[in-house]
Write a structure and sequence with these properties.
By secondary structure, this protein is α/β, with parallel strands linked by helices. It is built from 3 helices and 10 strands; from the N terminus they run E-E-H-E-H-E-E-E-H-E-E-E-E. The chain has a single domain (13-148), classed as Rossmann fold (3-Layer(aba) Sandwich), CATH 3.40.50. The protein is globular and about 50 Å long. The structure holds inosinic acid and magnesium ion (MG). Magnesium ion binds at residues 42, 45, 101.
Amino acid sequence: MQIKGRDLELLIDSKTIEEKIKEMGRNISMEFAGEDLYVIGILKGSCIFFADLVREIEGRVYIDFMQVSSYGTGMESFGEVIFIKDMSVDIKDRNVLIVDDIIDTGRTLKALVEALSLRYPKKLRTAVLLDKKDRREVDYEADFVGFTIPDKFVVGYGLDWGEEGRNLNGVYVVR
Ligand code: IMP
Ligand code: MG
């Protein structure tokens, strides 16, 4: 398989992702047991992970979305997080779980957590499918992590390279 003339190499297959998301769902359900939870997906990269993850969380779940941008269309971040679309719910005194596809430099999640903390949620947690630990530029770790992966650019399962590759059902390294 190729994207823009570059070969793709399978890193995580869909079955492995499915099992991991079940486990994450159990852990998240335990953390928020018996309480309402607002799950906020970060568009667009988290959409597939988000859809699978919310269905593994037990209890009363509300969903909403935000869109931020730090990447443009390339493989390198601009280093600045721009808020494009806000969620439409008031999260004051609510339990909130932010869901993103991947934590890389950490700038996106750190900026989001700082911004949303100002709205006084009851509890604010973050979940990501993928974590590129070696790339961190700011001091932030997600609360729920699916897979720690090497410093390689990946696509699939919602993640894109220049808007391509989101529909692949596994995670692939762009070679
Ligand atoms: P951070 O702010 O550097 O942590 O970047 C987070 C965002 O960068 C993610 O939500 C992704 O949209 C994007 N990103 C980082 N690494 C990759 C990758 O390997 N493939 C696709 N998108 C990525
Ligand atoms: Mg993204």
